[in-house]
Amino acid sequence: MKNKSNKTLLSVLLIAALGVLSGCASVTPAPVAAVAKTANATVLRGTGDLGVIIERASGSVQVIDTSKMTSIASIPGLGDLSHASLVYSRDGRYAYVFGRDGGLTKLDLLKGEIALRVIQAGNSIGGAISQDGRFVAAQNYAPGGVKIFRADTLELVADIPAAYGKEGKFSKVVGLADAPGNRFVWSLFDAGEIWTADISDISDKSDKSDKNAHPRVTKFANIGREPYDGLITPDGRFYMAGLFGEDGMALLDMWHPEKGVRRILDGYGKGSEKLPVYKMPHLRGWAVAGRFAYVPAIGRNEVLVMDTATWQEVGRVKVAGQPVFVIARPDGRQVWVNFAFPDNGQVQVIDVETRSVIKRIEPGKAVLHMEFTPRGESVWISARDDNRVVIYDTSNFAVRKELPAQAPSGIFFTTRAGRIGF
């Protein structure tokens, strides 16, 4: 025990010394004290059934094992995690967490610790990882824009300010997604634009003389008022931006960007009284089930159904409240929906054949997120105000297990590493 204590003390002193030597370096390793409970790094294991639960109130995360349905590590010290999201390295070992305070944190899931952390902006709202896994991009509210970092070192390689208009104002960036061809695509909330960036020419080497180290940015203006979020289809072909300022969505064909952006679902709420919006809904590729896309109707107690072959509306499903997440089970047989306040204590399940609600469950107070296991036999649901995550069997809706968590919000499994738009 004495030898172990001495080694621990030596490690702390060594890291402290390195911190002094590094001075004002923007990229820093995590201090040993930041890890309260760590995974057993001596056990040989894969990463395919790991995941992360965000604990927003405490600025911490839990690393979880989805096969054993248990927590294997707790990592504090991640800053403001309200509305935090993350992406995974392609081997599923590292998670890149985007915090609301502008923090970008690289987690080592196998060691259960912070590998690197930078403060890259004043207010960040999410990010994406490139097709080849070499770069991580963060989307920012303040200052508005996108920053691109090397995935291995978190070194900044490109800064793309979201300046628009004659006065050069900066827009909030939303809906950032990766796209085939080593591209990123995102929307500008204040400007009403969609931008794409081709990063194929950016070198991942620290060669400051590399004149090609600039992304090729293409801008699409006048796509609609106040795009609030975006999704890219699972095959990476179509990017959609939901519009908050008007009824409709904007669609960009990534195979043929030269054709520009077209409007879909135009005026879907026409003639109806607008309801106050209690929480902004979220969009991602999880909304696509087979050939149909299920998306939330802004301010309405409805889920809209589109045929992705024509992008025409083919149906609506009445639900209990204003949808926030509309997520298809991996096999596309069911679509699960959670809601904004005051209906945020329940989840409804839509059967895609009948397009009707077949089940209503109550996981707890303030349901914030849902995540399916890779093949969809279970779904994990966070109930923030009850400080728990509830795991359901999706075949019979029975509760399989509950895990304690401090104000849990987002749940992210490593299987996202192999999916476009996640």
Automatic annotation (TrEMBL):
Could you tell me what this protein is called?
A: Protein nirF
| Domain of life per record | Bacteria
Q: Which Pfam families match?
A: Cytochrom_D1
Q: Which UniProt keywords are present, listed alphabetically?
A: Signal
Q: Where is the signal peptide?
A: 1-25
The keyword Signal is annotated on this UniProt entry? yes
